[in-house]
């Protein structure tokens, strides 16, 4: 039987409601010690997650001072006043473009937060009963905590939200909390200029998802990586990282097939070995026709949590980091692997071709990648964009012969875009969450 918490006052440790609705954000924080860091600072944590109904998830993170409540996914993403919320976001975007940041914030408090809070009635009893000192959403763009944050704001509870990835400032965030975190000052500027967030509310603390990459104890030798994946350490390693099945009516095999034909015809020295790194939302059997080749090694995250999709273990994240550490070239049509490669100074090629849907693919890529978050990579000269299979092979060949090619651009990505790479981003998030929880509640 659970002992009830004191309602308020001295002697009660601060309580953080931590919402994580998808497996990757759960892993980024929880596998890197977020709960332990909060507990070490004297706070209790109530985890609100779909994983609360999955015994392995609860067992993995259970400890004194931490409890779990199931987050109903379908209810969490239900939007009652869609048209009005979209209108508020559209007007807010126009205000942000014109630099009216205070007006944008006032619009949210007067209308957006109220409209969104109306979808959070399922949380009212829990919030009233437990009286948390802070509500923290691990992945603002995902939207599972949108109504929880808004209702908390209406009830005067300090709210905290994390912008999980580098491309998310280019999309509407599913909430506007009191305190926000992101990777770097570059992302912070995007959030201010594109979304109208208050500069004083945003903290650039680094990317928790990369913390395991930065621990020297996790660095493998090339021989260790090759032993784990069945590769030859004496031959070059090319990693082709897929983008994932981002839309139902979308093909991602055509790019790989076209590259593979050009690769076979090129006869590169080595010869290089190919690692097909499947994105967790790629559909495995779509790639079946390539699996018979002995020179292709398939790698991907495999741990899964019901209702949360992919849920990488720390060991899987360490392997992914070491794959990028020892790859000679990374090829990726738009995944975050383009950023992860820069962490380890690995030359990267971005193919924008797909012979199966050539015009649609090129136009979509131009509109949704190159003109948005990839514009930083292009301006920094950090990646080689290949618009044909032949350009991709030429770029790979150059990278294999000159690993320092575009090195200055990759350094800019590490230093400016990603933020601090010291393995302590999760620790900083926990520190700020506890600080937020210790503040006096809003009037």
Give keywords.
single chain; 443 residues; alpha/beta; Rossmann fold; seven-stranded parallel β-sheet; disordered N terminus
Description:
There is one protein chain. This protein is of the alpha/beta class and 443 residues long. The chain has two domains: 15-210 and 423-437, Glycogen Phosphorylase B (Rossmann fold, 3-Layer(aba) Sandwich); 216-418, Glycogen Phosphorylase B (Rossmann fold, 3-Layer(aba) Sandwich), CATH 3.40.50.2000. 42% of the residues lie in helices and 13% in strands. The protein has 18 helices and 15 strands. It has a seven-stranded parallel beta sheet with strand order 3-2-1-4-5-6-7, sandwiched between helices. Strands 10-9-8-13-14-15 form a six-stranded parallel beta sheet, sandwiched between helices. The protein has a two-stranded antiparallel sheet with strand order 11-12. α11 links the parallel β8 and β9. It is globular and about 65 Å long. The two termini are 34 Å apart. Mean pLDDT is 93; it is low at 1-8.
Concise account of the structure shown:
The chain is of the alpha/beta class and 443 residues long.
- CATH topology value of the largest domain: Rossmann fold
Q: Can you tell me the overall shape? A: globular
Total count of domains: 2
> What's the architecture of the largest domain in CATH terms?
3-Layer(aba) Sandwich
Roughly how many Å is the radius of gyration?
Answer: 23 Å
The number of helical elements comes to 18
Output the strand order for the largest sheet: 3-2-1-4-5-6-7
Sheet with the most strands, sense and barrel status = 7 strands, parallel
Instruction: Please state the oligomeric state of the protein chains shown.
Output: single chain
Question: Strand share of the residues?
Answer: 5-15%
Give the strand tally: 15
